[in-house]
């Protein structure tokens, strides 16, 4: 029996996640997931752990059902921020692709992130009416995640990876948070079974496969400290999880679109309606 072991949303793209026992799931993913993004103050290009690994150590708490945020990071104090849902706009982009306008969250948030990241930055929120398509088998809709609503991984996949890592004799196993999943599944012993799930229902939520999750340098960042700690797990994944159709990138986890909204809870049973090899 496959069940949900963990649920996590990431309020600010690239920053620390929030683990919860239950979460409302919208068409764009878990509620509050990647609703905010840090961008370059000059050109609006998104910032990520790829270039600013310290973002992993920025803690974000959603307050008052999204009306406020609490930001904190070691050495930079804390900031409580009243969220502006429909204020001044700023053009933003991701991977050099324009996303349109986002709502700027003001000078206090901008200064806090500029200090924490050591680079002039602004914090923005998705604007009312924001409408962005994903891509893949089932594209779906997405906020400020890279391209898809929900990232699913399994304990079986991590256990298999860590067995390979430790077999090398020169590295320690990695925790699941290196991959920043939204949903962690357990109960099936087959590594990467999540790749083969084409449709599944969890509670009242229905998800459909979009694409395998291609991995960059982010899994080499220690998510507790914000420091790079490579070469694992990318080194070991490169030996058995390369994807020729995606320029030989490595994959871990599966990205999904939301087909039916609802509520997810830790412990929910997963009903797989369609497998790739069915």
General description of the model:
The strands form five sheets. Strands 1, 2, 12, 13, 14, 15, 18, 19 and 21 form a nine-stranded mixed β-sheet that branches. Strands 5-11-10-9 form a four-stranded antiparallel β-sheet. A three-stranded antiparallel β-sheet has the order 4-3-20, with no helix packed on it. It has three helices and 21 strands. The protein has helices at residues 107-117, 155-167, 234-237, and strands spanning 3-9, 18-20, 22-26, 29-30, 36-40, 59-63, 68-72, 78-82, 89-94, 97-104, 121-126, 150-154, 183-186, 197-202, 205-215, 221-222, 227-228, 242-243, 249-260, 262-265, 270-275. The chain is mainly β and 278 residues long. 10% of the residues lie in helices and 40% in strands. Strand 7 (68-72) and strand 8 form a beta hairpin.
């Amino acid at each position: 029996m496959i069940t949900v072991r963990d649920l996590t949303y990431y309020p600010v793209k690239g920053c620390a996640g929030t683990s919860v026992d239950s979460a409302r799931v919208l068409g764009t993913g878990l509620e509050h997931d990647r609703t905010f993004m840090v961008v370059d103050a000059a050109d609006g290009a998104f910032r990520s752990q790829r270039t600013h690994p310290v973002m992993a150590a920025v803690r974000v708490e959603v307050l008052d059902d999204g009306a406020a945020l609490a930001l904190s990071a070691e050495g930079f104090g804390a900031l409580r921020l009243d969220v502006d849902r429909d204020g001044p706009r700023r053009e933003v982009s991701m991977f050099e692709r324009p996303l349109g306008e986002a709502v700027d969250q003001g000078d206090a948030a901008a200064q806090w992130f500029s200090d924490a990241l050591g680079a002039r930055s602004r914090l923005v929120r998705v604007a009312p009416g924001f409408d962005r398509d994903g891509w893949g088998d089932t594209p779906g809709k997405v906020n400020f995640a890279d391209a898809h609503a929900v990232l699913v991984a399994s304990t079986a996949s991590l256990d298999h990876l860590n067995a390979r890592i430790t077999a090398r004799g020169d590295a320690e196993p990695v925790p699941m948070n290196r991959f920043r999943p939204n949903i962690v599944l357990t109960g099936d012993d087959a590594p990467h079974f999540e790749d083969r799930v084409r449709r599944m229902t969890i509670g009242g939520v229905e998800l459909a496969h979009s694409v395998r999750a291609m991995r960059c340098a982010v899994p080499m960042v220690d998510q507790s400290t914000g420091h790079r700690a490579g070469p694992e797990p990318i080194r070991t994944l490169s030996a058995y999880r390369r994807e020729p159709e995606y320029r030989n990138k490595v994959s871990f986890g599966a990205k999904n679109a939301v087909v039916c909204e609802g509520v997810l809870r830790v412990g929910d049973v997963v009903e797989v309606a369609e497998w790739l090899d069915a």
